[in-house]
Design goal:
The protein has 10 helices and no strands. The protein is mostly helical. The protein has one domain. Helix 5 packs across helix 9, helix 7 runs antiparallel to helix 8 and helix 8 runs antiparallel to helix 9. The radius of gyration is 19 Å and the shape is globular.
Amino acid sequence: MNKTEAGGFRTLGLFGKKPVIGLTMFVIGSLIFIILAYNLVYSGPLIKWDLPIAKSLHALALKSPAFVTDIMIAGYYIGGTWGIIIIGLILGLYSLYKRFWRELVMVVVGFGGSGILFLILSNIFNRPRPSSLFDKLIWSGNLTIPGFPSGHTLCVTVLIGFLVYLLLPKIKSYLGKALLVLIALLVAVYIGFARLYIGDHYLTDIIAGYAVGIAWFGLSFTYIEWLFKKYHLIKEKNK
């Protein structure tokens, strides 16, 4: 990597250099999703916990103070479509302005692909959300579209993963790196739990969302970096 590549809000091309990392993420994420999907279709043992957990959280939410519910509802907006779009636009416009084509493609394919994956998979499995079972809802914004896998956790996994991937190499201290990873994990867990708490998802919806997000992150970014690496090698060879 040359000096011009090192500057700015860029990736270091780790997936392109070591594709086994991204491919491992794809395999692990895909296997987890396949296991959950199989249990959903065939009413396997992993699904039997979904309804009791959903009912327990719903009962807890009804008794909780208003400020707690508000914090959980905020998770819908923080990890929602508009939040992802706004951050994606900022990253995309920055990459376009700087002519960071690799990062621009990663934003477009990574973020756009995660949304398309949710729409395809959720409509294939067509799983009703737990809120449809409750007489009294936690809030008026409960969604009615299919909920497996969770679109919030899928897209947030890709978004947070990409931000960590960009920022981690820029931080010099091990403490700073650890704090960044910890904050990223806490945000991801918060959004996932918030979706459970307000009754928009079952637990397996959330885990499936994380799994698909990890798989898509590993596959798409590895392939993009590999293509750009191959392109630059060909370009250097033809000089």
